[in-house]
Structure prediction request, 503 residues.
Amino acid sequence: MARSITMQVARYRPDREAEPTMQSYDVPLRKDWAILDGLNHIKDELDGTLSYRWSCRMGICGSCGMTVNGEPKLTCATFLTDYAPGPVRVEPLRNFPVVRDLVVDIGDFMAKLSVVQPWIIRKDEETPDGEYLQTPAELEDYKQFSMCINCMLCYSACPIYGLNEHFLGPAAIALAQRYNLDSRDQGSADRMDALSASTGVWDCTYVGECSTACPKNVDPAGAIQRYKLTAATETLKSFLMPRGGR
Amino acid sequence: MSDTTATSHVGNQPRPYRRRVPILWWVRRRSYLLFVAREVSSVFVAWFVVFLLLLVRAVLSGEDAYRRFLDWTANPFVLALNVVALLFVLLHAVTWFNLAPQAMVVKVRGRRLPPVLIAAAHFGAWAVVSAVVAWIVLG
Amino acid sequence: MPKQRIAPILWLLFSAGGIVAALMIPVLLALFGVLFPLELVAPPDHAHLLAVIRHPLTRLVLFGTCVLALFHWAHRFKYTLYDGLQLKGLHTAINTFAYGGALLGSAVAAYLLLLLPA
Prediction:
């Protein structure tokens, strides 16, 4: 096996250039090295000016998402050897403004997360003395959607978000469903306005790439389709029983 | 909400770089191309409705009109159009039934049915409907 | 953010049309569009087909197929132009064409399948 691999890394220094350029680095090709280890090698040994985000190195923090050979990937969970003999192209996440090099502006996603009120909403007057109890079956209903690590790979994979930045997007809708389907939650009516707005679920045309890109098998595409059915049923009900319910 | 993010974080420095989505964004990736092909299948669904209504009108107009309709369908251009339409409609059917279990959660006695079973049920229904329709048409 | 009243209904029509189109169209198009013209299968005679089409249940099923399939087309076609060709700026013209076409086609289907044979 070759002892090194070429990494083509996107550079963008807003003080120096108008648009990103690619810069090549040769890094050791070790079988236990992920793309992120290659970037760390560049930063430590070859070029200290390279900027990128990372933290846990174990697929939990969701910080190190980038575009690797055109695909949205967690760079800590994507191995250099899978791209041998190379070169391997590392670019920032698509569909987000690039702040510098491989760092994108995640402000839009952060704003969207809070729009769907991703916390347990209770209508009771008083807080109970103990916990809200839940059966394993009730846990199973939403558990899949609770695995999201906010890495934004789904936004990067979604062409609809790329075309329309106002679209609420995969992770935010999946997270809304995580609480809507939680037996302890009573806030699905509060989330409905954001979800069924023109920028909510109806913008999605089920490309399905969000679920393909998701490193945690959250299946946002499935969550969105299921919510469409829920919202459509609610609308029908409100037509049939204008006074009843919401 | 996102308009404000364009200038955040960077202070006096130039704006963050925004990549424009090319008009033909879907040609460069297989999965996007397949998605657009799936969406385009709807045009052939509409064509089929036109074709079906022409058939119905011909049959209701009498035996001669029906014969003329059959001759027209053998025209190479019409035949080629229908072969292409059939391929797109098949793409629609297969993708539709494959995606159905992702959007549908069916529970039996509190347990979620495995997605494979839901897809299989859809394909089974497709086979039955097709057989019944063919049997009725062919008599 | 305006709450959508019409979008869910149009989506339900799209979905129903998607199922109906997937179930009904391949077999009918394969028979009348490909197998009969290629003479791989002999087409039914006129009297038989007329009897089938005159049956109230057939007329209802075919009418439902036409209407739902047309609304399925309208929805997908609209989004194909919006996203595939980035023509969202023309949404008024696109909506008029798509849903106007679906309504017009439904009217023709109603005339041919519900009024004429009765």
Observations:
- The mean pLDDT of chain A is 94.
- The two ends of chain A are 65 Å apart (CA to CA).
- The domain at 107-240 of chain A is CATH 1.10.1060.10 (Fumarate Reductase Iron-sulfur Protein; Chain B, domain 2).
- Chain A has nine helices and seven strands.
